[in-house]
Amino acid sequence: MKNLKIFLGCCLAIACFSIQSASAQKGGIMLYGSLNYHETAAGHQFSAAPVGVGYFFNDNMNVGINYGFNNAYTKALDFTDHSHEVGPFYSNTWPLGEHFMLIGQVDAHYIWGDQHVVNASGGMVDGSYNGFLFRVYPLVGINLGKGWALKAKVAELSYKKKHGKDAVIPNDHEVITGINGSTVGLGLSKNLFF
Known about the structure:
Layout: H1 2-18, E1 29-33, E2 35-40, E3 43-56, E4 61-74, E5 79-95, E6 100-118, E7 124-145, E8 148-153, E9 156-164, E10 172-178, E11 185-192
């Protein structure tokens, strides 16, 4: 946690003292995302949360498509759980001075994946699922100049409905609200102007 605070403090200092802002322009393209890798003695995880491309239809609003995935390998089970999400997004940006911005984003995604689960008799079996995810969240952005921005997701309100394709994966729904480890994230974006 201390390292994260130091990193965020350095990013804030860089943004405040040495960089010029680059605002979005109508007709521009935004590329964004976050790739994550985590390894422990129990296994490893590789994910994108999510990566996307959007089109600015005015100086503050854009629409596009994004894709997220999570591959989690567990050594003890020698199995990798896979989850995917893809769908459109809408984003609106409110400048807060020259270097900062507040962003609201809405995602509507189709989800699918497979996972290793324990069945009723205690054995491990594979199952797959699909469903949908609706997510609304705020971000705080720092303009880094030349179209680059550092963005932090600070909370989330989402609803996920999962339909098991196999009997071992139950139909389920999940509501996520507030601020916790799964609702906070950090990523980069790049605006391209033609």
